[in-house]
Amino acid sequence: MMRLITDEQTISIDEHASGESDKNRYNFRELSGSLGDLGTFLPLAVSMSLICGLDIAVVFLFAGLMNVATGWYFRQPIPVQPMKAIAAVAIAEGLGVGEIAAAGMLMGVILFVMALGGGVDWVTGRVPKAIVRGIQLGVGVKLAIKGVMMIWILPIQAIDGWMTAFVVAGLILLIRVRWLPIMLMVFIGGMVIMLITKNGLFESYGWGLPHVRWVWPNSEAWWTGLTKGAIPQLPLTLLNSVIAVCALSADYYPGKRISEKKMAMSVGLMNLVCVPFGGMPACHGSGGLAAQYRFGARTGGSVIMLGGLKILAAVTLGSVLMGFVQAYPVSILAVALVYAGMALAWTAKDAMKRRLIAATMATGLIIVAYGTLWGVLGGFVVYGVTEWLLSRKK
């Protein structure tokens, strides 16, 4: 029986061909896989709440709702992640709620219009496979490096330190029982560590539903959101959150590939629905899909369950939610991030061929060193030169 080998696990092509992958499943393995992307989601959500004034409960509420909608619509573990360029600028420059909302809403409008007008298909048709694989390679390596750096600054002997990270990494690496929800077990272990190290975490607990409010930016915030948020974010979203994630969907689910038009429209609608009410600008991402798949997620049921957990946390934890997510062990989130990056980078292996390898490696290396946009531009230059040289040899 023919099999597709990914992330050192196998998944039957016959299973997808029979339509089984169209049915969402709800079990411990799916739930375990859904937790694989928390290493990206939690640090950015917490930072934007602390520095920029977003309500963490509202962020969790809308992220959870979009997880549920995404899982139901796509029937695959497509993640809901923060828009990283907007998040990075917002955190670095201390943008306010109005400026973040403007950036997210503008991204929503741009992507929705591009999807309807054929702009996304036009861009997709002009990005070679070598560039897509280079994006996956570069973003994957960056995620892994970020995870390693998170571990590097931890104390060596503390309970949330190097030793815990090594133990968790070893468990994930060595345990190969497919039905065992390893990431769920690790996540629960992290909660135990958190409760041991943060004794007074629930002392200030107070019941309170998320404070959802309408956010409408002023003229200055619109301009800041456009120039500092939407413009830097657009190429990253088109390349990694639309084109690359659709390519990865095709790798994991032969014959069930999600179109770039649907993916772009989904990202656009998410931001138009959530951001005006205080939600965080969000997208889908190839790194999140690789992470969730790596730890066992195979259907949309995984992200539906994750969304349910986020909604539950938003409406029950109330005043302690911020402290809860801040207190979660960094050592565990960092290890998850390393494995997520490795899984995403590994998908570039089929581009290690004479005609593709130069552009793929150039794209990936430049992304690691200078960022996604420069990596893609450099990759196109190398791809063009390679094609020209090969054509002269014929």
UniProtKB/TrEMBL annotation:
Ranges annotated as spanning the membrane: 41-74, 86-116, 149-175, 182-202, 234-253, 303-324, 330-348, 360-385
Any GO MF annotation of the entry: molybdate ion transmembrane transporter activity
InterPro entries xref list: MOT1/MOT2
Keywords: Membrane, Transmembrane, Transmembrane helix
One Pfam family linked to the record: MFS_MOT1
Identification of the protein by name: Sulfate transporter
Origin species: Poriferisphaera corsica
